[in-house]
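Quick one:
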Amino acid sequence: MRPPPPDPCPLPSPHFSPPLTPISASPSKAILLDATRQLQARWTETRATWRDHKAADFENQYLAGLSTDVHNALRVIDELDKLLQQIHADCE
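Output:
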């Protein structure tokens, strides 16, 4: 005989203080956007003085696909945020 599945929303222990606001992935999104903007700005400054083939190699290897990767990460963060909101609603 199988044991019953665990309660998806168990009552917290007396030592646990639940957060006052729901958990959100939005701060991570803001941090990622800000870091990406800062990196792009610094790269633009650097590229103004670093003009050899090594600079182009670096840009192609590390930065060329960055906007696509960041866009994909932001989409996943949005999906996680929706999931977290659903979990919070289910546990209320």
